[in-house]
Amino acid sequence: MALKKLALYSTLFFSDYVGAVEVAPGDYTQFADGTSIGLLYYEFSTTQALKAQGHTVSHDYKVDSNIGMLRFLHSFKVSEHGTLDPQFLLPFGNVSTRGDASSAGSVSGAGDLILTAPLKIALNDTGDVFAVSPYIYVPSGNYNHNDALNLGENRWKFDFQTAYIKFFSDKWAVDTIGDAIWYGNNHKFGSDEMERQQKMSWAAQVIGRYFATPTLSFGLGVGQTWGGEDVVDGQHQADQGQTTNVRFTAAKFVTPHDQIMVQMGRDLAAQNGPEESFRMNLRYAHIF
Fold first, then answer.
1. What's the pLDDT score for residue 120?
2. What is the distance, to the nearest Å, from the Cα of residue 230 to the centroid of all Cα atoms in its chain?
3. Dihedral angle of Cα 245, 279, 158, 5, to the nearest 10 degrees
4. Helix (H, G, I), strand (E, B) or coil at 16
């Protein structure tokens, strides 16, 4: 791959590397009316290879992210079976590069503010839930068009997410999640202040959960993302994604109001962009 093309490819990837919200097992559980929950996340991930059209173009493309996120929600009842959970999510942290990616440098700061209000509908008394969530990404994060690496995207983004939780017994459940994502334009992309557009992308997750005890659960999930080709100054980049990942999760209530979650995972395959070789997510949740 030519150096100029590789540089543009890297800039496209880094411009929206941070900020995606991935659903964890049980996220769409319906909470009691009046419940407030504060959450603190930490994510470490690293990449090894850079892919283009399914081919490895670099075996030494190392991107390390140390990302935190603050999240707060309040649930209230809107009907006999429905609740609404208005909330905000604010990512922050550091992303650094090594190897063939090192020219991008590193960045620290805040990502784009995320606003949402999931509507959850209880389908029965066994815990089955159907939900819809409109996620709005506000272009409030750190962004400099002269930098290849940014925590903010300098554009609006809208993610329409649906979810369905099915309990097969008091021990087993499956969460299924689907996303359709629309992107606003970035009018100051790259050092030449080009116009960046992006086509729609989609995502899906399937997570199986096992409840070992009332306070301890395990989850195993597979996720897929695809689409999202970039168009820069009218030129199609043929960089649409198609990435498959796996996640293993353990969650434990250490008190009736405090939960700790540990999640490990990696990419199984990537069509375009850096391929994650390892990911660890930690989450602390407190129910007020």
1. 98
2. 19
3. -80
4. coil
pLDDT value of position 132: 98
The residues, any chain, with a CB within 8 Å of residue 35's CB and separated by 6 or more, are 74, 75, 287, 288
pLDDT < 70 regions, the chain: 1-21
| Torsion angle defined by CA atoms of residues 5, 10, 12 and 18, in that order, rounded to the nearest 10 degrees | 170
* Reported pTM: 0.93
Q: Which two tokens stand for residue 13?
A: 């990837």
Q: What is the 3-state secondary structure (H, E, C) of 86-131?
A: CEEEEEEEEEEEEECCHHHCEEEEECCEEEECCEEEECCCCCCEEE
Give the DSSP H or E segment for 52: strand 36-52
Contact 153, 140 (CB under 8 A): no
Domain annotation for the chain: domains and CATH numbers: 3-287 (2.40.160.160)
Q: What is the pLDDT of residue 4?
A: 47
